Amino acid sequence: MRIVVVGGVAGGMSAAARARRLDESAEIIVLEKGAYVSFANCGLPYHVSGEIAAADSLLLHTPATLRASLNLDVRVNHEVTAIDREGKRVAVATPSGPTTIAYDALVLSPGATAFTPPIPGMNLPQVTQLRTVDDATALAARVGSAERAVVLGAGFIGLEAAEALRERGLEVTLVELAPQVLPPLAPEMSALVERELVANGVTVRTGVAAQGVSELDHGVSVTLSDGTSAPADIVVVSVGVRPNSALAADAGLALDERGAIVVDHHQRTNDLAIWAVGDATAVTHGVTGAVGPVPLAGPANRQGRRAADSIFDRAKGAEPVLGTAIVRVFSLTAAMTGASPRQLDAAGIEHTTLHLHPGHHAGYFPGASAVHMLASFAPDGRLLGAQAVGTEGIDKRIDVLATALRAGMDADDLAELELAYAPPYGSAKDPVNMVGFMMQNVMDGTLKLWHPADLDWARDNALILDVRSAAEFRSGHLAGALHVPHVELRERLDEVREAAMGRPVRVHCASGFRSYLAHRVLAQEGFDSANLSGGMMTLKATIPDLDLVTGAPAYA
């Protein structure tokens, strides 16, 4: 059998390597149009920053090492230009001229192409992208003589590029068309990331688009849609990718409405001799059911393995993709899995969203930092998605929640998970357990929540009760809020009752825990009480321009 793999890196090389492990006798040819068949594209920004000093460290394998270890025939600088499905052969442009290669099984791993905005100046030498090893080495070489950079796009690569350039000492302006950085995050979580960027000297411009890049005597100027401009010596464009599916389209393979190659659960296309993997394929989201490309390395690697299994009739079928992802932004880590509240709303999926801010390990052990978490659940308690931002322990919690999501776990399961505990690593009640506890309380009526979106209603129709300490209250509180520290609440219930005048009571503290204790007291005393999800931390992150009053407590 001859297997031809078009494209290397994550998906293609996984398919080729798995195929060899399954059949030592198969002839396996990998055709890669670029100079590198297996490189760590996720590591490119870290070469620009200098954390990965040598570009060679990004090269995972070469044609020679793949020949030696797996007996693969890897041919770089070979671009497949056409597929003859009837003749089962591909046309290839090689350094020696055009040729054709026959196949018994064809695996397409063409990847995705960086989107270039249709604006003037994209061809200027100061404008670059960060998709290949050559992009990274060229950018790293230019950084030493540059002073200012503009990064267009605040997604994963854009954030990593902004951090890398700032670490190299450049003045960095980060431009994002969406109203927030890292658009997959909920706005209140994204606000924490933006705060970290600003704290590290990055100028953040959201809600604006680049309209053009023009040359100056020294460097260039990026014109923005609000009429302002940003000077730069380097412009990094990272505004998204598009499936590189032209080859498949020309061959008559089925594509979805976004141009991604349609495959079945075994990665097979509508041609029974052709499989497709990686960023160019359409996948199903495991929560919303939405179908489209998900350009992540993890799914691409698994798809390559699955395609090889299918070629040898060993495939077990694909699991839907959850979109689990993580990014470092200076000292912060942001991660997510499953569906965001925005995606759930768009899909019409009923859900409850919780916010909490537990410590990443036992509070009595030095160095505990907050894990800012968001989790969404179906009415029956099934986990639908989660996000977390913080300095420590973020990857652990999202990985656990991603596993729980894949297993179909609900609030009861999360509450009972037995996770490793010692003071330097976690708490006896891990943040993951706390997520389950909170949802259990919501479901059985022990906890009634109100959210930042309810603030205007609460101001007009309820008594807002602030149960923080006097010092916290003085530092900034909601106008008209009654201040009663939670430890004094039982003795001051008559005061609360008089101030409420029959209205509902909407209680809050800094993070939601002390106000939960107060909420339980109020609920059992007959008040219509609800606790602010995530407390003042989440409220201020959701409404960055929140108008707070400073001064003495109302009762003082």
Tell me what the CATH architecture of the largest domain is: 3-Layer(bba) Sandwich
Mean pLDDT over all positions: 95
How many beta strands in the DSSP annotation? Answer: 32
Low-confidence stretches: none
Strand order of the largest sheet: 5-2-1-9-20
Which structural class do you get from the secondary structure elements? Answer: alpha/beta
How many helical elements? 17
At the third CATH level, what is the topology name of the largest domain?
A: FAD/NAD(P)-binding domain
Instruction: Tell me the distance between the termini.
Output: 85 Å
Percent of residues in β-strands: 25-35%
What this model shows, in words?
This protein has 556 residues and is α/β, with parallel strands linked by helices. It has four domains: 2-112 and 242-311, FAD/NAD(P)-binding domain (3-Layer(bba) Sandwich); 127-239, FAD/NAD(P)-binding domain; 331-441, FAD/NAD(P)-binding domain (3-Layer(bba) Sandwich); 449-542, Rhodanese-like domain (Oxidized Rhodanese, domain 1). 29% of the residues lie in helices and 25% in strands. Helix 1 runs parallel beside helix 8 (297-311) and helix 6 (187-199) packs across helix 17 (535-542). The chain starts with a strand and ends in a 14-residue tail after the last helix. The model has no long low-confidence stretch (mean pLDDT 95).
